Amino acid sequence: MSKYLLHVITIFLLLISYYKDSKKTRMALKKAWKAFENILPEFLGVIMLVGILLSLVNPEFISSIVGEKSGWLGVILSAIVGAVTLIPGFVAFPTAALLLKSGAGYMQIGAFISTLMMVGVVTAPVEIKYFGKKLTVARNIMAFFFSFLVAYIIGKVVGGI
Amino acid sequence: MKLLKRYRFFLITVIVTVIITIVNQSFGIRAMGVVGYSFMEMIVIIPPIFILLGLLDIWIPREIMMKYMGEDSGVKGIILAILIGSAAAGPLYGAFPVAAVFMKKGVKFTNVLIFIGAWSTTKIPMFLFEMTSLGAGFAITRLLVNIPGIIIIAYVLSTLISTDEIKEIYKNAENL
């Protein structure tokens, strides 16, 4: 249900907008389409890239590198896997929970989840189109290193190391 | 020809996928499964985001956006950027077009970056899901580290980049 909340809100606002000014609403839709069409090639490319990467990086592969005893090397590898993949949250979180049950460390999972969400290597083409190369690279590198801090604190607080 | 150039990146990925499928069928099938899934996600989640930003572009005057999130918006602007980013749904690549409209409307650069950070990592629907799968300790710790983290990252990024470069990015946003 909550999955469609955004749709309900959008339709509601669209109706209000149309009621108030149909011409402006048509203009808004035209702008929406133009913005979408503009970025569509990058979107499609990113989606394909995610498919290719996820076919190579699967849960078995991830679990082989994130064991509790894998230490900082495991943290670094998990961070890299998180950075280069793009897994939707509702697949990533249960997978992470499963990995924890099967012996993965909190620090490693923390690094994986953090870079997964904050660092987007495959989405970089989209980001570059809006923010340019320099900022995209800088943001992703900073988010990558920040994830180690997140991992360390999660390891301390949750994993109790 | 122009179309071909625009879709070059996409075409390369298609060719790579085809090659993978020829070399190893099970990898290829898995890749296509993920592509199918992501494609459906795009079709379902992306249209409302773009329609909303179209409406935002048309209905919300620049002055209002500047007042609440512009240069002089202070803490209010930061909080709004975090809240709007956190209320979002959808993958990170959906955040960039919204950021472009924000820039068009004169939102302060650090607030745009904070919004991107919040969208990437403190989304409320995802937070609830994270709590149920990985436990409250994990999710809350991550959230508490992330909120100051994304603000600090935003400010550091804005110092790394010159005013001219920021102007260039804003100008670019006008044409997107």
TrEMBL record, chain A:
Keyword Transmembrane helix: yes
Residue intervals passing through the bilayer: 38-58, 70-93, 105-125, 137-155
Keywords: Membrane, Transmembrane, Transmembrane helix
The protein, known as: Permease
Organism: Natronincola peptidivorans
TrEMBL record, chain B:
Keyword RNA-binding set for record: no
Keywords, comma-separated and alphabetical: Cell membrane, Membrane, Transmembrane, Transmembrane helix
GO cellular component: plasma membrane
Topology class, membrane: Multi-pass membrane protein
Highest taxon, organism lineage: Bacteria
Protein localization: Cell membrane
Pfam families in the cross-refs: ArsP_1
UniProt keyword annotation of DNA-binding present: no
Protein family: Belongs to the UPF0718 family.
Protein name according to UniProt: Predicted permease
Organism: Natronincola peptidivorans
